[in-house]
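INFO batch 0412 | record 1 of 1 | parsing
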Amino acid sequence: MLKVEGIHAGYESGQVLQGVDLALEKGEILGVVGRNGMGKSTLLKSVMGLVRPSSGRVQMNDKELTHLSTAQIARAGLGYVPQGRGLFADLTVRENIRLAQLGARDRAAPDFDALLSRFSIVGERADSLAGTLSGGQQQQVALARALAGGPHYLLLDEPSEGIQPSLILALAESLLSIAAEGRIGIILVEQNVELLRRAVTSSLVLEKGRIVARYGREETRHPGTLEKHLAL
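INFO prediction complete | emitting tokens
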């Protein structure tokens, strides 16, 4: 289980997260919803060690992650796809994935052929520079790279950003497959309501760094439930 308990975190400009708690089992997909500036990305960065919490704790499978470096957290089995995907644009698709595999160390990581079977673009454009791909293709490579490290849990920040609306269904199906087949827990920060409805098993809403609502699968899918938290 991935557990976040009472996390407070922020930047020099001020505190952002105000005591966030969540728990995620393998195979589950938790949606994190809220308007811009409410702390969603800061939550993922705090779990990943990119922002150091001022209080609270993060645990994964009973291992304390709170004070570890980002590299140590990644090696422990936490994958992260940041907003904008974070690919090395001047490296090929194959090279981006190989770098992630190097960080797997003692975990069983999927080989290149296994990733190719899940993401066709990995094989079709393996020797192309990542920066030459479309938004949807880059998202596939970013997911493949995250899986190449053999993670137990994945943190995804706005994966629908920059991809065509027609690809949302395919993205949802891909996330469901990753969670179910790989027994991987996913935290999905997202504003696209259609993706959330199709993919998540539960959701929570952040406002000004606090959780103000939690919804199960059926509540999340009900029209209007999430929209009211995203409206200006």
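INFO post-check: The chain is about 35% helix and 25% strand.
INFO record closed
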